[in-house]
Structures are given as C-alpha cells and as structure tokens.
Amino acid sequence: MSSAISSFTPCGRGGISTTPAGRSPRLDWRAYASPISLPAAQNEAFRISRLSLCSSSRMVKDRTVRMALVDEPRLARGTRMAEQPPGVLAYELVQGPLVEWSSSRDKSVADPPTAVLLHGILGSRKNWGTFARRLAQEFPMWQFLLVDLRCHGDSASVKRRGVHSVASTASDVLKLVAHLRITPRVLIGHSFGGKVVLSMVDQAAKPLARPIRVWVLDATPGKVRAGGDGEDHPAELISFLRRLPEEVTSKREVISALLREGFSKDVAQWVVTNLRPSGPPSSPSSKFSWMFDLEGISEMYHSYEETNLWKFVENVPRGVHLNFLKAERSLHRWALEDLQRIHAAEDIASEEGSGVEMHVLEDAGHWVHTDNPDGLFRILSPSFQGFKS
C-alpha cells in the first residue's frame, strides 16, 4: 500500500462528449434519504472499525491521493460523532489531491465532481481500489466513491429486508449518495453493477437536472445468457460456494477445491479474497469466514439474469449518456442481437438530446479492470477530462 494513502482497512480485486460549458443544475439524489445532521470533523485521524460506514474524514492539504474511509463514530481525541443511520452501505472515498471536500463540512460548499464505481456479483469495493487511485492521480479534482453492495464485503453485515434485486441494490446506492450529500456526474458499474447503475438512473427523478455519464462494463441490459464450455459461470460458482462450510481452515484448500470443480485459477484466487480470519490473528488455529451473504447473493444473481432494462436504454432521458463496454474475449455475455439493438438505440438517443455509445475493450475477458486496465483507463478518461486541472 502506498504511503500516499491515509490509513484504512485492507483492500484487493475485482469517447463520449464532455460536459457542456457553464454551470448546470443538480440532480436531486437527496430524495432517496432523510436529511442527516452531522457535526464537523475536527481531526483527520480516525479509528477504523470492522464495518465501514458513513461520512468522509477531514482531508489534509497535500498533493497526494487520499483514501477516505470513515466508519467509526468516535474521533481519535474522543469527540463523538452523530449516530449513523441504519442500513448505510460500506464505502471508501478516493479523492484527488485537489479535493478538500468532506460530507461533514459546511454544506454550502459545492461537492467536487464525483464518480461512483460498483463491483459485480461476489466482488467488493476492493475490486476498484487500484484503478480508482490511478484515476484520482490523473484527475485530481475528482473523487471516486467505491461501494460494497448489499450482501457483499462489509455491507454483508447490514441487514436488508425485502427482495435482493437489481432495483433494491440501486436504491441502496442512491440512499448512500444522498446521505453523503453528493451528486455523482459519472456512474460506472461492472457486470451486475452495470445493471445497477442503469437502474439508478432509471429510478432517479426525470428529466435529469444535469448531464450524467453512465458506464456499463461487460453487461447487457436484458436477459443474461448461460456461459459457454470452459467458461466460469457465476450461478455455478455461487452454487458450489453454498456447499462449502461457513468457516474454512485454509485459503489454499478452497482454491484446490474450486480447481477440482473445474473453475479457472484466476477465479479461484479471486474468490478467496472474500475470506477473512474469523479468530484472533495470533491464534495458531485461526479459521477463515466468508465476507458475503450467499443466500442474498443468489437472489441478486437471479435478479441480474432476469432484469430487463431495454425499455430504459431505448428511451434514454435527455442529459443522460449511456456507454456500453464489451470485453473482446467475453463471448457468452453478448449476442449479435444485443449489439444491433444498442447501435439502434444510439441513433434514437442522438435525435432526443441524449446519448448511447458502444465500446470494445481489446485483449480483455470479463474482468476488464484487471485484464486490460490501461485500455479501460483510456476509454473511460474522456468522461473526466472536462474537469481536469
């Protein structure tokens, strides 16, 4: 971990036109959460607890990328912060060196341009950590909100009622950004997270009050197709993991079991990043437990397979620019009819003052941000260049 990043709990895996000149009005995300009164932070040193919830720490004035992970209601000097509302998702806020904003500060200060990055099924906010820090270095006026979706990572401890679906997951994220009092200008979602960002914009008030750019990475708006021979399939992976004990004695044993079942080495090594020690670190017989709710995730994946957002894509609200990115080697997720339908939506959107665009990331499979991070960075960069210092 770079010394340029402030202390936080450990993390691991996972053009379009610029905004028109002039100040544009805000999209009112605040309708998704009740106002929360938070006192001003008086010290940037926070004691980090196991569950990552809530507002940003005070940023020191330096020229480095800062990772703001705020989840502890007590400051280092003993000052109490307001109790946090129940159900807020775990998150990290990666801020560029020119960002001096905090959600606990004077709300008359405008929030900086913000991008939200969402992971896929069985992932976590850690998937985006390295990539987000690279974006923050290149675009120092921006901040990047990385979220653990419901049933995943540190949000698995946040109890949820009702159906675990694409729509309910989108509502969770809308409530988080409302709680933080930020107005995202860019939404980026990978796989399941891609459908979530589509649903977020679909649920938000229309017409949108200002331009917003949405990136759907290697996911189609409609029904998900089954995997081909030799390809790891999330439904099969979820089913296998549900047969494993809640506690395991070795990550290596889990990797071996996954390989014997026919899953790839890359997927096996990625899955065990969701294991954490369940006992004291000093214990010689320490076991590992999973950092997700597999029952809830199974529901979420079923919703991902069945959720159909083509109607939204083919009737994009004014001021919304949708970008679909297909990984070159991601074969089963895309059909010719999907590509044709997206290209048809491009023509319709351009006539209505909105936008739809299709991109292909060469030399990449489904894990676009690890298979070809340089190519992905080049494709996404125009979304942030209008605010580059």
UniProtKB/TrEMBL annotation:
<feature type="domain" description="AB hydrolase-1">
    <location>
        <begin position="116"/>
        <end position="377"/>
    </location>
</feature>
<comment type="similarity">
    <text>Belongs to the peptidase S33 family.</text>
</comment>
<keyword id="KW-0378">Hydrolase</keyword>
<dbReference type="InterPro" id="IPR029058">
    <property type="entry name" value="AB_hydrolase_fold"/>
</dbReference>
<dbReference type="InterPro" id="IPR051601">
    <property type="entry name" value="Serine_prot/Carboxylest_S33"/>
</dbReference>
<feature type="region of interest" description="Disordered">
    <location>
        <begin position="1"/>
        <end position="24"/>
    </location>
</feature>
<protein>
    <recommendedName>
        <fullName>AB hydrolase-1 domain-containing protein</fullName>
    </recommendedName>
</protein>
<dbReference type="GO" id="GO:0016787">
    <property type="term" value="F:hydrolase activity"/>
</dbReference>
<dbReference type="InterPro" id="IPR000073">
    <property type="entry name" value="AB_hydrolase_1"/>
</dbReference>
<dbReference type="Pfam" id="PF12697">
    <property type="entry name" value="Abhydrolase_6"/>
</dbReference>
